Amino acid sequence: MSYIRLEDVTRRFGAITAVDRLNLSISRGECFSLLGPSGCGKTTTLRMLAGFEDLDEGEIHVGDRLLSSKKSGYYLPPEKRDFGMVFQAFAVWPHLSVYENVAFPLRVRKTPAAELDKRVREALSHTNLTDAAKASPADLSGGGKQRVALARALAINPDVMLLDEPLSSLDPHLREEMRFEIKDLQRRFGFSIIYVTHDQSEAMALSDRVLVMRLGVAQQVDTPVNVYTRPANKFVFSFIGLSNFLDVEGDGTNFKTSRGGLPLPCAPPPELANGPSCLACRPSEVEFTGEEGLTGVVARKSFLGESIDYRISIGEQSLRVQKGRRSTGPEPGETCRLRFIRPLWYPAD
Amino acid sequence: MSARGAGGLRGGGGFGAAGVILTLSIGILIIVVAVPVLLIFFNAFWADGSFNVRDVIRVLREPDTYQALLNSLLIACGTTTGSTIIGTFFAWLVTRTDLPFKRFMKGMFLVPFMLPSFIGALAWKMLFSPRAGYINRFFMDTLGFENPIFNIYSYAGIIAVECMYLFPFVFIQVCGALERMDPTLEESARISGAGLFTITTRITIPLVLPSILSGALLIMLYSMAHFGTVAVLGIENGIFNIPTLIYERIHQSAGSFASIRTGTVLASVLVVSAACIIWLQNRILTRGRYQIIAGKSFRPMELKLRGLRLPLLFFCVAYICFTIVLPTVVIFLVGGLKTYGLPFTLENLSLANYKFILFEHKLTRDAIFNSVSLGLGAALITMFAGVMISYVIVKMKTRGKGILEFLGMLPFSVPGSVIALGVILAWSGKYGINLYNTVWIILVAYIARYMAFSLKANSAALEQVHDSLVEAARASGASMWQALRDIVLPLVRPGMLAAFFLIFLPSLRELTVSIMLYAPTTRTIGVAIYTLNEDGETVISAALAGVALILIISGQTLINRFTESASSGKG
User: Fold this and answer.
1) Where do runs of H (alpha helix) occur along B10-130?
2) Which residues of A fall within a CB distance of 8 Å from B193?
3) Structural domain tally of chain B?
4) Residue B232 pLDDT more than 50?
5) CB contact under 8 A, A88 and B191
6) B268 in a domain, yes or no?
7) Do A79 and B193 make contact, defined as CB atoms within 8 angstroms?
8) Burial of residue A306 (number of CB atoms within 10 Å: 0-12, 13-18, 19+)
9) Which residues of chain A neighbour B188 with C-beta distances below 8 Å?
10) Has residue B288 been placed in a domain?
11) Are residues B411 and B335 in the same domain?
């Protein structure tokens, strides 16, 4: 059922491999996010899909169309790919009216006048821009400009919509609103979305599946829930949500924290039981217990509004713990005991 | 509240330091710039004891004057069109295509900025004058052509030479706009389905149009008031434009009343058209400038030239060789000849002329000394005056600043020949001080002419110095003068230095102003080259032009080296 297929896609810039043998398959109508810190290769991947970057290896197919192939030296230029694309900095043309911006893709396709007008008006009404048709994009707010960019991408009714951090130039409250609008448009038109972002909550909220990338290498492709609850490695764990890591040493039966030797109330899986390993947990998934558990000292306690944030010293390591604002807990300087809820274990670095 | 007013600069009140600086600034601008311009208008419009427009029209309708106006307009329009096309094309080529050696090409296309166009005109005259030009003679003597292949003493010749030296104005503006432009503006057109031709014509060119137009207007302004090229190439066939006619009249009649009238009327026309052009340019820049500056930036799309790559590379190299290398080489070669017109063979060439002008000929030695000392003097004075005036305009919020802003704009719109004429009117003894025929009158004119450069460089530097820096110094206990000396001055020093060189280098090759003001002992390099050439001393004139080129190019290289190390030192 895969509609968009990337096979061994590689892109190098000089000595740096921006994207390293990436394999992906994305279904029709799926919303797929490329997530990672800056420089991870997510934008390069999107630009290869759009046709703005060449491939150093591999192939890209959409449906039964071959878009780029290093092997056969084939390369379909961006203007022939019939995608919709929205850029971070809006990229609406200031010398054309809102109407003409949206009409542009249809004009270059020599769409008949009546058809063109109908489709521009449809795209404008879907993006709530009907009243702004004659305005200059320069007079619109950031959200308005991004709507113009969306309407322009919608005008040709594409099967694939490429979104390159489309919300990161907007105010936070607007971001959430636009997120729902994009999702809503997708439901109505059924296009596939490839969504590039460094904002994990955006990726979580929108996507059917997420690809987490680091330094050009795919780390995990999975549903948002799985990426959060079962991160494939320490990097994914730390990139998604708040994270704690505790270095641990074990001899098969006894487990202690490294640099401090405090006994642990839980055990790693058998394959990590001998030697050093790493315990990972979310700050909200640590509990204070009365008598037993890992011993720590409260180094700092801060009130954050919705929650209370603790910094706990565990020997020479430290843990962050978050509890609801109504909970009671130890005060700075006091010794406390801790328990982990469903900790995850990774090999030590 | 008012203590905040001057960006931390305010004395105890009353007529303090702020007042002194303000008065001094207004005074300098009035004496140096405003009075000469006003005297020109006064002399133009005040005839027979009354305000008289009819007589102005009479002067303008004299056949010679009318023709000069027409010529100025014609040459300016031709030059503007030609240079805009050349400049835009080359700018697009070096920023948006995969042309080989783009960086080197870009540097070469900026070289004409530093070459004096009248020296270029001299070189082209040596190559293409109908009878004696080397290329024309080659075609006639060797290849058996009946007639010269090109006559440089024509409108086409003048326009072609001006284009060669003025196109960088458009080139640099358009390059800047194309480089700073958000590449996704073009990419979004591409993903919308547009090919590169559609993108260039419908998206790229419209978006950089304000920059193209503003560069074009700059060329228009420059060409209308341009003296050198027309003086060297036009006089043979009786082609005069406004500046050359002013010079011709004043020079021929040694300052008779009628010639002064014609001169001032023509000068008024120049000032008014310059003001119109600058107004139009500001309008385009403020209204038409789109927000196209990139945020996060990928490398912009490069058009793959494919089959055209080598032909276009060849075209660029040929253009550079023909318009930059060839004239420069010709100047040096002719400068080495025993007699003008001899073929360039080894036995005809020597360094004798260069030795002669540097060590023996009093006229040329004086000229070099005059130009260097005038340049140093003008650059120093204008640099300090400029920093003070800019300080008032940029930083102080005092009453009377409005006048200063207006006066500060004035130097930008006053062409060189107008300044020269105004200085003659103001400093020839009519108002008590007579500097005519001395070197001082040239100095005063240089200061007026280059004040614009200094104001521009210094205000740019001062705008970088935030008010809070001075306020912090005052809050730390520094007096206003200490704050100026220890905080502001060190921070604007790069701007002042830039101003100094922006004035010193052009003044080495100055012709337009000096030619109207020189006396037998106060020739500058430009005047000496020009008059030697007029007197038929072509080889000596070429040798001096060669020396001038060496001075200018080595000076420019030194500055580039210096500014590069200064900017890399900052990180």
Assistant:
1) 17-29, 35-45, 53-61, 63-96, 102-110, 117-128
2) 79-80, 82, 105, 108-109, 156
3) 2
4) yes
5) no
6) no
7) yes
8) exposed
9) 85, 87, 91-93, 149, 152
10) no
11) no
The closest CB to that of A94, out of B189, B195, B290, belongs to: B290
- Alpha-carbon distance of A64 to A71, in angstroms, equals 17
B13 falls within a domain: no
From A93, A67, A78, select the one nearest A152 (Cα to Cα).
A93
DSSP state of A192: E
SS3 content of chain B, % helix, strand, coil (to 5): 75, 0, 20
- Give pLDDT tens digits along chain A (349 positions): 689 999 999 999 888 999 999 999 999 999 999 999 988 999 999 999 998 888 999 999 999 899 999 888 888 888 889 999 998 888 888 888 999 999 999 999 999 999 999 999 999 998 889 999 999 888 888 889 999 999 999 999 999 999 999 888 888 888 888 888 899 999 999 999 999 999 888 899 899 999 999 999 999 999 999 999 999 999 999 998 889 999 999 888 888 898 888 888 888 888 888 889 999 999 999 988 878 888 999 999 999 888 999 999 998 899 999 998 888 888 899 999 999 998 999 998 7
Residue A156 at interface with chain B, using a CB cutoff of 8 Å: yes
Q: What is the set of domains in chain A, with CATH numbers?
A: 2-237 (3.40.50.300), 243-347 (2.40.50.140)
CATH code for position B107:
1.10.3720.10
Q: Which of B288, B306, B341 is at the close of a domain?
A: B341
User: What is the domain range of residue B159?
Assistant: 62-241+314-341
> For residue B199, what is the nearest residue in chain A, using CA coordinates?
A108
By C-alpha distance, which of B197, B282, B217 is closest to B76? Answer: B217
Report the percentage of chain A scoring pLDDT > 70: 100
Q: Cβ–Cβ of A83/B195 closer than 8 Å?
A: no
> Residues B323, B420: one domain?
no
Mutation target vs A (from B98, B186, B188, B203; most A CBs, 10 A cutoff):
B188
Is B203 close to A149, i.e. CB distance below 8 A? Answer: no
DSSP track, A195-208: EEES-HHHHHHH-S
Q: Is residue B334 domain-shared with residue B474, that is, in the same domain?
A: no
Confidence bin at B444 (pLDDT 50/70/90): very high
* Minimal-distance CA residue of chain A relative to B196: A79
B546 found inside a domain: yes
Q: Which of B193, B206, B292 sits opposite A108 (nearest CB)?
A: B193
ipTM of this complex prediction, to 2 decimal places: 0.80
Torsion of CA B442, B448, B452, B454, to 10 degrees: 70
Whether residue B332 is found in the same domain as residue B356: no
When scoring B181, B182, B184, B186 by the number of chain A Cβ atoms within 10 A, the one with the most, hence best to mutate, is: B184
State whether B324 and B390 are in the same domain: no
Question: What is the percentage of chain B residues whose pLDDT exceeds 90?
Answer: 30
Check CB contact of A152 with chain B, cutoff 8 Å. Answer: yes
Q: Which residue of B has its CA nearest to A89?
A: B295
CB-based contact A104 B298, cutoff 8 Å? no
Pairwise CA distance, residues A98 & A150, whole Å: 11
Q: Are strands A217-222 and A209-214 parallel, antiparallel or unpaired?
A: antiparallel
